[in-house]
TrEMBL record:
The chain holds residues 248 to 553 of 553 of the full protein. Mg(2+) binds at residues 183, 207. GO terms for biological process: phosphoenolpyruvate-dependent sugar phosphotransferase system. It catalyses: L-histidyl-[protein] + phosphoenolpyruvate = N(pros)-phospho-L-histidyl-[protein] + pyruvate. It comes from Paenibacillus darwinianus. This is Phosphoenolpyruvate-protein phosphotransferase. It is found in: Cytoplasm. Its cofactor is Mg(2+). Keywords: Cytoplasm, Kinase, Magnesium, Metal-binding, Phosphotransferase system, Sugar transport, Transferase, Transport.
């Protein structure tokens, strides 16, 4: 019942053997942040910033973006807020950007690939994020990373934006954590290398599953192949978690899989430490965490993956 789930709001997501897991919310607009708090979320694990760019005739200005990021940070009053930089392309169309139609939009000019080629647009977003970072615990996350060079390029642009702001006398938080989405199989496979450059990983299973199994996440004719529990997917998730632990990088998950109470045991068994999902799933996933043993989940997954 609703009352029963409400009871989970203020208690930690802790297993019966005393291991604690982070519970975060996914949002698309600043207004959704309040619901994450009401559901007992400990922060925002994914703010899909592309929603600020959609359904409009022109790109949002630096001021508009700054106001939106700041609003989320203020609602969350000191709790962590992970803002993902513009994830355009694929199924997310933004009419005023020159992406056009592609034969394989999910394999095309999207997300970080687009941003690294439209550096003027990207810099506006990075400046807005850096300015907002003075108002809370903001973390930046880059989407669709497929290898090391993209992280280096994105971080260089972030440093440039920071220096520009400094020269203008505008403060940005020092040491803001930087993370990447792990949603391309190549990124999972070289996650030991990628870990050197970032503070956290967030596994995006929506895309990771489609790319691993070569099954379009939008195409019903192949949806029978889109299996979140395919051994290949589970092995990749485990590899990412192991590399994260080895290199002291936090590892969370923000794809749909993270909000499924029936899959939490599998994910904990694979080594996922933080879960980010839509607000209404938070009490359900918490309830699930509180019913299981981390050690038993680990043992079971080790056997399953053999
Ligand atoms: C994902 O790919 O799992 C993800 C969280 O990103 P999106 O669903 O926005 O592509
Ligand atoms: Mg994605």
């Amino acid at each position: 019942s609703k009352e029963e789930l409400q009871a989970f709001k203020d208690i930690p997501a802790e297993t019966i053997d005393g291991k604690r897991f982070g519970m975060y919310g996914n949002i698309g607009t600043p207004a959704e942040a309040a619901a994450v708090l009401e559901s007992g979320g400990e922060g925002i694990g994914l703010f899909r910033s592309e929603f600020l760019f959609m359904d409009r005739a022109a790109m949002p200005s630096e001021e508009e973006q700054y106001a939106a990021y700041r609003a989320v940070l203020e609602t969350m009053s000191g709790k962590p807020v992970i803002v993902r930089t513009l994830d355009v392309g694929g199924d997310k169309e933004i009419p005023y950007l020159p992406i056009g139609s592609e034969f394989n939009p999910f394999l095309g000019w999207r997300a970080i690939r687009y941003c690294l080629s439209d550096t003027a647009l990207f810099k506006v977003q990075l400046r807005a994020l850096l300015r907002a970072s003075a108002h809370g615990d903001l973390r930046i996350m880059f989407p669709m990373i497929s290898g090391e060079q993209e992280i280096l390029d994105a971080k260089r642009l972030l440093d440039e934006a920071r220096s520009e702001l400094e020269a203008e006398g505008i403060a940005a938080a020092a040491g803001m954590p930087i993370g990447i989405m792990i949603e391309v199989p190549s990124a999972a496979l070289v996650s030991d290398r990628l870990a050197r450059h970032v503070d956290f990983f967030s596994i995006g299973t929506n895309d990771l599953i489609q790319y691993t199994l070569a099954a379009d996440r939008m195409n019903e004719k192949v949806s029978y192949l889109y299996d979140s529990q395919h051994l290949a997917v589970l092995r990749l998730i485990r590899m990412v978690c192991e590399n994260a632990r080895k290199f002291n990088v936090h590892v969370g998950m923000c794809g749909e899989m993270a909000g499924d109470p029936q899959l939490v045991e599998i994910l904990i068994g694979l080594g996922v430490e933080e879960f980010s999902m839509s607000a209404e799933q938070i009490p359900l996933v918490k309830k699930s965490v509180r019913s299981l043993s981390e050690e038993a989940a680990r043992i079971r997954m080790t056997q399953t993956l053999e």
